[in-house]
Design brief:
Oligomer: single chain
Structural class: mainly alpha
Shape: rod-shaped
Strand content: under 5%
């Protein structure tokens, strides 16, 4: 049976029934008056019999008709008020019987205000409406719909009696209570201004109370009405009503009104505080204040301070803390404890100063006590929340809360039996206690929080609880590798991943993503487990445009951390389709924090991943990333955008170009400004570094974009270390292998600050990059070498070699010293004087990282290069044993390479060190390094070391050869070997074979000839050709057997080819030397060289520009070739050899042996009748006349006179040419000089005889006369020589006929001797 049915079925009291009958429609007016009055009195007297009146309601409502006297209407309204007041069901019945319209009608201005001296009908009608709508939303709407608001508002006027105002205000208060629609209707009806007027001091207290109540209800949770009430001036009178002189009820309603006006309304909070409300509200917290009033005051203060730092301070300054903390005590009613805790919560929220003051006021112990199981749930919830906010971002308070014993009860409140709100706040408190507090993180976990927190992630748990549980797990795992594992072990990952689903509220998704972020942060193992739990696809889905920005932010952050340094997850994130939404999140419409995380995610996805670099670029990420570099973009976003661009460009020449083409350089350079935050400058410098790395084009563009001055400025002592580091790195890459940029950067003044960064006070990572920058600035740059040394770099660089220095820094310091001394004798001395050798030697220790050992060995190598003094110092410092040890096969290749290089330089041109290197046991490991399995660079330097160990050292040649290097060296001559290794292998064979008959045979026996000959080909690198030719030269030197083998190996044609004008001089010289040795005293080989076309190129090399030794060798060879046979002589002559040969004779720099050999060649050519006939002119020989001087060397005069003598014997025309050229006078002059040696005088006499038919001297003229029988010569006007100075001397008489006869006899003897020798050789061969 329902309540209404029960109401109708109850028995009716006889007296009530009698009065019900009196008001029946058929009763007399007098009876109706009596019945209404009696029923009114009975209803007011005994509320327990309300149900007995149900049957009277229709008749009572009928009596509200306009025809009824006002007295009856008033009594009826009062009776209905009593009935509605005591029972909601009765109120519904009254409304259902149609009481509302007539009651509203009674509010009209035409109704008398008093009847029979009692309260007015209007007042009673208003009261009846109040009772009908109290706690009855349906009736609220019906009353308003019946038009009650305008007349009720009218009754608030100043002309209305106070009692009526009182009831009208009360009715309005109840009509709008918790009814948003009616709140708006009431404001529109103009109720607010008159209600505000009723707050004045002249208004009776009851009316003030009702007016305050009426103003309170329409502003509750109604932002619009809050503003309207405040604008109507309600706040000052409401604050005035808080005074101690105001009745308690009025104070309470005023406080409630202020409470509602301040709710979530910053403007009103400020206005209320400015109106002076805080002190009286604090005063109401006194223990003398009734409990209900205290509660309202606390609530008002709470709303005034919510999210309002200014008011938080004012409330504390007004002395609110002690009474608020006192209200937390066990003696305080539970509800009040909860309200006080809530107020404290808002006082400390985001207010570090108040957090300390609240704790100092002793709030923590009572708040912790309120967490006990005996405390009502609502109070537990507020206490937990207050503790959460006390601990938020406050490491001191976190410790105090934990020390007060909060953890066990907070963990207990996570129980599934605890109401959801309590669990939510308990989880939140644990989250805030653990935030950034490694100690508390451990204590919370030790208190057993993980299992219940994980359980709270269940889909059956309310969203707010799940959100805070996820938040707590996030804070417990943050930067705590131990807790990360424990959270995963507690089974948190699957439910956290489930919370990422599209059906989950945004706040829960956010904290689930955040928890995953902290679980995988710097934890490779957890990255894999979270990815395996399927987190990546839903995280990618959360990047969609439909997702709230704050969730996108944490989803992107989770992907950032999942992908960090995890190659497996990188692929999964990309495969899950993350790139398009991440790129989309870079757009200008995206919230800044989300842009930052999206850029960060892209950064991690491309970090050291070439495949992803291409995919990100293909997803069109570069333009929006460049756009994010704008100065209008928040700093964090610019930082991550610059970093993403840096990682896109890293080691990717294609992307480097695309980033630059997208216009990144100007904004990146702009970000280097000192006004830019440090992190942004750091990443901008990093991006410039990666854009310039190994990219000569971008290096120039970076410089042209103006990056150098700001990069140099970033090296200053005031700049944060990370910025200095990347600025130095950028300079490294801008100057790397770029001589032009080295100069430009050095001109900008970076060297002094870079040197300053080497100081012991600088972080190691900065020292490393500063040293690296100096390394690259000094590389192969003589100008910068001096600047670095002058800037005082040597002492700090040497200091950085110490054992206390970080390995990478040691490596760069050693590398810098290496570059400073490379090919620089001056710096070698300065570095040694700076005491660099001992620490460099110490760094060769096996305990030193490989990279450091490599650079230390290299630095020692360069210190010793071409420096006999330093070679000794390095050896004396004990470098040989560790260097030899570094040749071990267990040592990294780069270290072995530099160790071998160092040994090479220590032994070079140093006979003492050669022996010491051998004694240190270097030969076997060096030979072992020649094996096919050894990297090329190591093979090269091992071969080079062997070269220098055996150079000009016969003893070491034998020892090294005994160690078996020749076969592997020969193997290194193969076409598959890099040219630089071939070069040094060939050089080693050159030096092993030099003047060593034993090694000559070993080299040839090892099969060296075919590959050496192959290396002579035009496709071979010049240096290798040179060494191959040099090796062949040594192999055939004074070795007839090897001459034949080399020729059989086909060496002559490629050697001849190397004589061409296009061949480098060094190669030509070695080819000449090899050919000379091959044909030396070997007619067969000479013939083969001639057949191979060797004569023309040899002749072509007889220029003054050619190297003198080579010229001498060529002359010697040509002499042997010309001496061979007429055919050869014709070839030599046909090769136009005369001009260069004559040029050599007339060159003052040509040595005497060469001059004599040249003259021998020429005389051989001129002595051959079949060759001499080719010479029809003396033109090519005329330069020799310059040598016919008294001061010419003997060898020049001997050679010249011999050549000219034979030349003159060819034909009269040639003799006439010589005479016309003025040969006679110098012959006679030199002949007559007392200083002329006898041999020269004899040669000149023969020459003079050869020219007697053209000579005009007295003797020759007389001779011709005698021979012709004439007494004078026709056409001759004098018997003396007809040229200047002829009379300055008298020629001695010469028996020309006798001299000529002697010359002919001498020639016949020489010819006979040659024929005899030829026959002897021929017979010897036949006998053999």
């Amino acid at each position: 049976m329902s309540a209404k049915e029960d109401l109708h079925n109850q028995p009716v009291d006889p007296e009530i029934l009698r009065n019900i009958l009196r008001i029946s429609p058929t009763s007399e007016l007098t009876d109706k008056c009596i019945g209404a009055r009696e029923l009114k009195a009975l209803a007011a007297k005994d509320s327990n019999k309300v149900a007995s009146y149900v049957s009277a309601i229709p008749n009572l409502v009928a009596l509200l008709s306009p025809e009824m006297p006002y007295g009856i209407q008033e009594d009826v309204a009062e009776a209905l008020s009593s009935l509605a007041f005591h029972s909601c069901d009765t109120a519904d019945r009254v409304a259902a019987e149609g009481a509302i319209p007539p009651l509203v009608a009674l509010l009209s201005a035409s109704t008398p205000l008093t009847v029979l001296g009692t309260a007015g009908v209007q007042a009673m009608a208003a009261y009846a409406l109040t009772c009908l709508v109290a706690k009855n939303t349906d009736n609220q709407g019906k009353v308003v719909s019946a038009g009650a608001l305008p007349p009720l508002v009218a009754l608030l006027s100043a002309n209305t009696p106070a009692g009526v105002q009182d009831q009208a205000a009360s009715a309005l208060a109840h009509l709008v209570a918790n009814n948003t629609d009616n709140q708006g209707e009431m404001a529109s009806a103009g109720a607010i201004p008159p209600l505000v007027s009723l707050l004045s001091a002249d208004t009776p207290a009851g009316v003030q109370e009702k007016a305050a109540s009426a103003l309170s209800n329409p502003v509750a949770n109604n932002k619009g009405n809050q503003g309207k009430v405040a604008s109507a001036g309600a706040i000052p009178p409401l604050v005035a009503l808080l005074s101690a002189n105001t009745p308690a009820g009025v104070q309470e309603r005023a406080a409630v009104a202020l409470y509602h006006l301040a709710t979530n309304n910053t403007d009103n909070q400020v206005k209320i505080a400015s109106a002076g409300a805080i002190p009286p509200l604090v005063a109401l917290l006194s223990t003398n204040t009734p409990t209900g009033m205290q509660g309202v005051a606390v609530s008002a203060l709470r709303n005034l301070v919510a999210n309002n730092k200014g008011n938080q301070g004012k409330v504390v300054s007004a002395g609110a803390l002690p009474p608020l903390v006192a209200l937390l005590s066990a003696n305080t009613p539970a509800g009040m404890q909860g309200v006080a805790a809530h107020a404290l919560l808002h006082l400390v929220a985001k207010n570090t100063e108040n957090q300390g003051k609240v704790v100092s006021a002793g709030a923590i112990p009572p708040l912790v006590a309120l967490l006990s199981s005996n405390t009502p749930a609502g109070v537990q919830e507020q206490a937990a929340s207050a503790l959460a906010h006390l601990a938020a971002n406050n490491i001191g308070n976190q410790g105090k809360v934990v020390s007060a014993g909060a953890l066990p009860p907070l963990v207990a409140l996570l129980s599934p039996n605890t109401p959801a709100g309590v669990r939510e706040q308990a989880a939140c408190a644990l989250a805030y206690l653990a935030a950034n507090n490694i100690g508390n993180q451990g204590k919370v976990v030790s208190a057993g929080a993980l299992p219940p927190l994980v359980a709270l992630l269940s889909p059956n748990t309310p969203a707010g609880v799940r959100e805070q549980a996820a938040c707590a797990l996030a804070h417990l795992a943050a930067n705590n590798i131990g807790n990360q594992g424990k959270v995963v072990s507690a089974g948190a990952v699957p439910p956290l991943v489930a919370l990422l689903s599209a059906n989950t509220p945004a706040g829960v998704q956010l904290h689930a993503a955040s928890a995953l972020v902290h679980l995988v942060d710097k934890n490779m193992d957890n990255q894999g487990k979270v990815a395996s739990a399927g987190a990546i696809p839903p995280l990618v889905a959360l990047l969609s445009a439909n997702t709230p920005a704050r969730v996108q932010l944490h989803a992107a952050s989770a992907l950032v951390h999942l992908a960090a340094n995890n190659i497996g997850n990188l692929g999964k994130v990309v495969s899950a389709g993350a790139l398009p939404p991440l790129v989309a999140l870079l757009s200008a419409n995206t919230q800044a924090g989300v842009q930052e995380q999206a850029a960060s995610a892209l950064r991690n996805l491309v970090d050291k991943n070439t495949g992803n670099q291409g995919k990100v670029v293909s997803a069109s990420a570069i333009p929006p990333l460049v756009a994010l570099l704008s100065p209008n973009t928040p700093a964090g976003v610019r930082e991550q955008a610059a970093c993403a661009l840096a990682y896109l460009a890293a080691n990717n020449i294609g992307d480097q170009g695309k980033v630059v083409s997208a216009g990144a350089l100007p904004p990146l350079v702009a970000l280097l400004s000192p006004n830019t935050p440090a992190g942004v400058r750091e990443q901008a410098a990093c991006a410039l570094a990666h854009l310039a790395a190994n990219n000569i084009g971008n290096q120039g563009k970076v410089v042209s974009a103006g990056a150098i001055p700001p990069l140099v400025a970033l090296l200053s002592a005031n700049t944060p270390a990370g910025v200095q580091l990347h600025a130095a790195s950028a300079l490294v890459h801008v100057v790397d292998k770029n001589m032009d940029n080295q100069g430009k950067v050095a001109s900008a003044g970076p060297i002094p600050p870079l040197v300053a960064l080497l100081s012991a006070n600088t972080p190691a990572r900065v020292q490393l990059h500063a040293a690296s920058a100096l390394v690259h600035l000094a590389a192969n740059n003589i100008g910068n070498l001096g600047k670095v040394v002058s800037a005082g770099a040597l002492p700090p660089l040497v200091a950085l070699l110490s054992a206390n220095t970080q390995a990478g820094v040691q490596e760069q310091a050693a590398s810098a010293l290496r570059n400073l001394v490379d090919k620089n004798t001056g710096n070698q001395g300065k570095v040694v004087s700076a005491s660099a050798i001992p620490p460099l030697v110490a760094l060769l220790s096996p305990n030193t990282p490989a990279g450091v050992r490599e650079q230390a060995a290299c630095a020692l190598a360069y210190l010793a290069a071409n420096n006999i003094g330093n070679q000794g110092k390095v050896v004396s410092a004990g470098a040989l044993p560790p260097l030899v040890a570094l040749l071990s096969p267990n040592t990294p290749a780069g270290v072995r390479e530099q160790a071998a290089c160092a040994l090479a330089h220590l032994a070079a041109n140093n006979i003492g060190n050669q022996g010491k290197v051998v004694s240190a046991g270097a030969i076997p490991p060096l030979v072992a390094l020649l094996s096919a399995n050894t990297p090329a660079g190591v093979q090269l330097h091992a071969a080079s070391a062997l070269v220098h160990v055996v150079d000009k050292n016969m003893d070491n040649q034998g020892k090294v050869a005994s160690a078996g290097p020749i076969p592997p060296l020969v193997a290194l001559l193969s076409a598959n070997t890099p040219a630089r290794v071939q070069l040094h292998a060939a050089s080693a064979l050159v030096h092993l074979a030099a003047n060593n008959i034993g090694n000559l045979g070993k080299v040839v026996s090892a099969g060296a000839l075919p590959p050496l000959v192959a290396l002579l080909s035009a496709n071979t690198q010049a240096g290798v050709q040179e060494q191959a030719a040099s090796a062949l030269r040594n192999l055939v030197d004074k070795n007839t057997g090897n001459q034949g083998k080399v020729v059989s190996a086909g060496a002559i044609p490629p050697l001849v080819a190397l004589l061409s004008a296009n061949t480098p001089a060094g190669v030509q010289a070695m080819a000449v030397a090899a050919l000379i040795n091959i044909v030396a005293n070997n007619r067969d080989n000479q013939a083969k060289m001639v057949s191979a076309g060797g004569i023309p190129p040899l002749v072509a090399l007889l220029s003054a520009e050619s190297e003198p030794n080579m010229v001498g060798q060529i002359v010697e060879s040509l002499m042997q070739i010309a001496d061979c046979n007429t055919y050869n002589r014709k070839l030599v002559a046909a090769a136009n050899a005369i001009s260069p040969l004559v040029g050599l004779m007339t060159n003052a720099q040509t040595t005497a042996p060469v001059v004599l050999s040249v003259s021998s060649i020429v005389t051989t050519l001129l002595s051959d009748p079949r060759v001499r006939v080719k010479f029809t002119s003396a033109t090519s020989f005329l330069p020799l006349l310059a040598l016919l001087q008294v001061n010419s060397p003997e060898h020049a005069l001997v050679g010249t006179s011999s050549v000219l003598n034979l030349l003159a014997s060819i034909s009269p025309s040639i003799r006439r040419e010589l005479a016309a050229a003025g040969i006679i006078l110098p012959i006679l002059a030199v002949r007559a000089a007392s200083s002329t040696p006898p041999l020269v005088r004899d040669k000149l006499d023969l020459l003079h005889v050869s020219l007697r038919d053209v000579c005009s001297c007295q003797h020759c003229v007389s001779k011709r006369k005698r021979m012709s029988g004439q007494t004078s010569i026709e056409g001759s006007s004098t018997s003396a020589l007809e040229h200047p100075g002829a009379t300055s001397y008298v020629a001695e008489p010469v028996d020309a006929d006798k001299l000529m006869q002697e010359l002919l006899e001498e020639e016949e003897k020489e010819k006979a001797m040659k024929e005899t020798k030829a026959e002897s050789k021929k017979g010897k061969k036949e006998r053999q």
